[in-house]
Design brief:
By secondary structure, this protein is mainly beta. The protein is built from one helix and eleven strands; from the N terminus they run E-H-E-E-E-E-E-E-E-E-E-E.
Length: 136
């Protein structure tokens, strides 16, 4: 299977990336915010929603133009805490700026104030079969 490499610069692009990363699993210590560089990175096990087989692979997501980050429901003390990414959406403020919302299971949310939508998703490894398929 071909590895994904997607760039989002618009709301419709963001929706494509959001559907690709739905049901991804990550540790909270795999989320990094570089305030000086104004970017965030996420490393996670992405479920291959675009495939008929049950498989996961390691992927990376980079968000540029990040001005600030806040969270709700996040256990910052346990860096090995696992979370499931359910959705990514965008709330426009003063165009093109807005807030990218990363919505996780268990009412966890991370919000990134951004200058504009500027995001790259890239698969990093080959897919490995899994017997654990998301239930919804």
């Amino acid at each position: 299977m071909k590895k994904l490499k997607l760039k989002a610069e618009s709301l419709s692009d963001l929706e494509v990336i959001a559907s690709a990363v739905q049901d991804s699993i990550l540790r909270m210590n795999e989320i990094k915010y570089n305030q000086a560089g104004r970017y965030m990175t996420f490393r996670f096990l992405r479920f291959l929603n675009e495939s008929n087989s049950s498989a996961r692979l390691q992927s990376g997501l980079r968000v540029d133009g990040v001005m600030s980050v806040r969270s709700r429901g996040l256990n910052t003390l346990d860096k090995n805490f696992m979370a499931v990414l359910l959705d990514i959406n965008f709330t426009k403020k003063q165009s093109p700026a807005g807030v990218i919302n990363f919505i996780f299971a268990d009412q966890i949310e991370i919000q990134a104030d951004v200058e504009c939508i500027d995001m790259i998703l890239a698969d990093l490894t080959d897919a490995k079969k899994t017997n654990k398929k998301p239930k919804h």
